[in-house]
Structure formats: structure tokens, C-alpha cells
Amino acid sequence: MADIDIPPSRKAASPFSSNTPLLAWSRRLLKSMLPPLVAVLVALFAGAVLLAVTGFNPLDIFTVMVSGVFQNVRSIAEMLLKATPLILIGVGLCVSFRCSIWNIGAEGQFYAGACAATFCGVNFAGLPPALHICLVLVAGTAAGALWAAIAGVLKVAFNASEIVTTIMLNYIAIFMTSYLVTGPLMEQGAAYPQSAKFAHAIWLPRIIPSTRLHIGILIAVALAVVAYVFLFRSSAGYAVRIVGINSHAARYAGISVSRSIVLAIAISGALAGLAGAVQIEGVTYRLYQDISPGYGFEAIAVALLANNNPIGAILSGILFATLDSGSELMQINAQVPQVLVFVIQGMVILSVVGFAALKFQSARPSE
Amino acid sequence: MEHILTLGFLATTIGATWRLATPIIFASIGEVVSERAGVLNIGLEGIMLIGAFVGFWTMYETGHLPLAFLAAVLSGVAAGLVFALFAITIKANQIIVGAAINLLGLGLTSFLFRTYLVHTGQGVRIAPAIDIPLLSGIPYFGAPLFKQNLLVYSTLLLPPIVGFLLYRTSFGLTLRAVGEHPKAVDVAGRSVALYRYGAVLIGSGLAGLGGGYLTLAHANQFVEGMTSGRGFIALAVVVFARWSPAGSFFVSLLFGMFYALQLQLQAEPSIHIPYQALQAMPYLATIVALLLVRNRMDAPATLGVPYRKA
């Protein structure tokens, strides 16, 4: 993305401005939220047109979606459960995309993390539960980071397009998962290809009684803040962003471009791998073949809608999770194929980049 | 194990290689045209899916094979037009627009398939194999190689045609100049955008045809996400072939061979490799291929960069 936004707090901090800082800050916040909101509306409109053309009533269906998702604490908890991997992966992709590294491989990194987490979860039964949980999460994070770092290293050492390598690594990770759950990690005597179930002691603790919502969502929000601080308040994050804007300038300024690239993609892989581990420890409790319904791809839209701002990714993750939860209800209650969300995701991305590019053009009339 | 090393196995593999390479040949040679004009279209995967779906749907409704192929090409062109509108006119980031086209292709085709065509279990009639007289009579190699459908044979004509277009016509010269030095073309009074549109539409039309091949000549069914990475592999083919149409033909054959070997070896009871390792072969090969061409000096100078008038 060409445009970088300076964090609102830094711009608004001037004590000499005529407005109070808070007012200016909130105005700026509104202004930065407007394009994504319009993008979402455009995408929803496109979805509505598709529904209408195929003989569904879009208003009825959107009503079913929204009222269903926000019906009660439990349905909201289910939605936040879906938001957890989206936020985790989306936050990581913000870092990678800020570096102009197009990691399309979060899906594979999620699988790599899930595999490593499962290996550690079904083994090492003698460990104290708290330590075992941490081991599983760390293993997932490390596996995701390593899987992504392959693409990063190939990029800096061989100039191999990370777009192609990350996509190929997706397929390889998914085949690897399929091999593991039909072979080495397969549950003994199981009828389906799946791993053994995790012991109850190492499930992630739940945070709202009588719902499935676990502490993963809190981890995701906390890491979003950490990623924001990294990107906008640390020198390594600064280097990542400068490399993303202009790698030649970064090189002349003495920034190690290679290190920034590998770091950025490894961070995004680490978060995707962590998302895989969290999903297994918090939701499925075991590994199976299609464990991700495409979180890694959906998170691309999450990051782009947030203008690659990790804090924004919390909101856009919740938005996309609402769409996902709603589309499940839509399929159950109105027989509308759930894959409609892919169309909406694609339209969101198109509108976001469309608006960003138009803004960029209108901002440089003097040239 | 011994019967793998026979002439029969070799001949079948070569025939299957050509057949499985065909969609990648179409998509990659189309992408060569597009990238030569400086436009990187990673939406190939989604465009192929759209071609596969629209071709299948047309065939299912009309039973008219040439019309179905035409529909596949035109749907590819239509998807390419959307891509071009965002990537060229609006000057949005080409990679992101391509990713969006992939999502839209997957979403739209799956949505429409589940809404209208999910009951089409019996499939459609596919392009018939054409027997080339004399050649198909060659022992061992005749039948696997020279009893193919028309599209497979047509891949032999595509590299010379596109090569002629790119290197021997003024259109091709200008198109390549647009990829190398768009400002020069602009100053000479030609429209950079127009040439880029032309290149993208040619490329996406061919990708649509490659997609149509999957449902109208390869399988007789549409399956959600059935391109399974062929569009992305075509992107890697273009790099490995150094943006040459003839090169893309041969590199696509190489990838076709990985698909063919994977299928052939899976059918061999005597081989004890996990089938997932075999399935992963074409994708692993793609990564290895990218490593072998670490010198990327041949890439069009402005690949992926929108042109802005100064």
C-alpha cells in the first residue's frame, strides 16, 4: 500500500491547535474510518445485488444475519470465537504488508502451526498443564514463523517472488497435515483421519461461562497492541515500514532490507502459526484435514480493510467474523450458499484498494 | 517396480504430461503477454475458475461445445476487464487487485454452482479425442500422444502465434515498450493504458480458455476450486521461462510432467511413498524452479508498476 498513516495520537498532540486535541483526534479517527466503512457498504451492496439476482431477498437475509449474530451472549461469543484467528492472522499480515511483502501464505503457516502444536499437545503428557499449554502455543508460533521465513529467505537470497512461494507453501503445508493425520499423528483406532484429542487439562481456559469463548481473543487483542507498538513506536518496526515504502531509500539510509523483510514475514507467520495452535487448544482440541475454512485468505481482507493498522485489524476481524457467523445462519435458515462471504471479501478488498488509489491520485494534482 | 521402467509407462506419462500441461500453457502464455506490457496479473487462478465454470454452465445448458469454449474465453476477458479497470485505470496495487479477483472467482463460481448446478452429477460431453492418421499408429507412443483433443494440439500453434505477435508486429513492439519504458510510448503519442488493457484482455482470455479446458476437455464436471493452484503455477512458469512464449510452453510441459507422474505413481501399488508427498510435487517443483532463476534481469522493467503521467 502506498499510503502510510501517521498514528493519530502523534499528529493530534500539538498543544497549539485551535481545537482541543481530543476533538481533533476523534475527527481524524472518523476520517480514517470513513473509507473502510464505505468499502464495506459497497461490498455488502454487491452481495445484495448478487442475492437479488439469484432470487433471494437481500434485506431479509441481512436481517437474519445481523439479528442472529447479535441475538444473545452466546451467539456473540461464537462470533468472537471466529474473530480470534482472523485478528491474530490479520495483525501479523499488517506487519508483512507494511513491509510490502505479500504473504499470501498465512493459510499454510496456520496449518504448520497447528501441526507443531498438535505434536506437542499429544506428546509430553508429563508436563504441568500450564507449562504444557505454553509449550503448545510456542511450538505453533515457532512453526508458523519458520514456515513463513522459508519464503522470506528465498526472497532475499534468490529474489524468488514471495507471492508464488507462499502460495506453493500453502499447498505443501496442507498436504503435510493430511499426511500427519492419516499417518504419524493419527488417533489409534479412529474411523476418521484425525489426531488424538488433547487432554482436558491443556484446553485454553474459557472466559465467559456457558459459552465456548476462550482466552485466545484476549491474546489476539493484546498482540494487536504489541504489533502496533512494534510498527509505529520501535526502530525495527520503523525499518520495516521504510523498506515497505521504498526499499532503495531504506538501503541508502543504512537499513538492512533483507533483515527487515525476513523479520516482517516471520512475524506474520508466527502470528498465523499461533492462531493455528490457539484454534486447536481452544476450539477443536485435535487436528484434522480441513481445520481452517480459509482463515489465512480471509485475514488478507482483514488486514487490508484495516489499512494494515493492527488496532484496526481488531475491528475488521470482528466485522468479518460477523459476516462469517451470519453466513452460517444464512445457509441454515435461508439456504443461501455460505460461499457468498468470499464474494463479499473480494469486493471489500477491491473497494479498499480502489478508494486508496483514487485518494492517492487526487492527493497529487500538482505533479 | 520394474514395469514403471517400460516404454508403455513412458508413453502414457508423456501423453498425460501434454494433456495436463495444456491449461497451464494457455494461462502462462497469456500471462507472458500481460507481463510484457508491465501488468502482473496474479488473478489468473480466479479467472481460470471463472472460465471453467462459465464454460461448464454454457455446455450444460446448450450442449454446444464451441459455444461453451467461446463463453469460457469471454468470461475470462470479462474478469480481466474488472482487473484492468482497477489495476490500470484506477492504478490500484496489482497484487492486491489480483488477490481480490481470486477471491471473487472462487466465491462467485462456488455460489452460483451451489445455487444452480449442484445437481449436475452426470456431467457434460467433453471435447472428443482426434485421431491423427499414421502418427497414432506408431507403436507405444502413437495412441497416448496422437489421440488428443483439439485444444491439446492447438498448444503447438500458440507459442509461434504469440511469439509472432510480440516480436514481429508493431503492436507487439509497442506492447513490449509499454512494459519496459512506458513514458517513451506515451511521449510517442500512443496510449499506455490502451496497450495494457489489450495485453491484460488477451492474457485473461487465454486464462479463461485454460479454465474452460478443465471442465470441457479434461474432467466433464465443475468442482469448486478445481483449478487447485494452476493459475499460480502459471505465474511461476512465466518467471522460469523468462517471459518467453516458447519457453512457457516447455516449462509448462515440465510442470505437466509433475502432475502426470504424481497421478501415475499414485496408481502404482508397488510404490510406497505417501500419496500426499506425490501430490505436493508440482508445488515443490515450482519453488525449486524459482530458485534456479535467481537472476531476474529479464523481467519487464515496469512489471507491477502502474503508469502515471508526469
Can you give a write-up of this model?
- The complex is a heterodimer of chains A (367) and B (310).
- Chain A is mainly α and 367 residues long.
- Chain A is built from 14 helices and no strands.
- Chain A has helices at 8-12, 21-53, 58-69, 73-98, 106-122, 129-158, 162-182, 216-233, 235-245, 247-252, 257-284, 295-305, 310-334, 340-362.
- Chain B has 310 residues and is mainly alpha-helical.
- In chain B, helix 2 packs parallel to helix 4, helix 2 crosses helix 11 (230-240) and helix 3 runs antiparallel to helix 4 (94-117).
- The longest helix of chain B has 30 residues, at 7-36.
- At the A-B interface, helix 6, helix 7, helix 12 and helix 14 of A face helix 4, helix 11, helix 13 and helix 14 of B.
Which keywords apply here?
heterodimer; A: 367 residues; mainly alpha; ABC transporter involved in vitamin B12 uptake, BtuC; 14 helices; B: two-stranded antiparallel sheet; globular
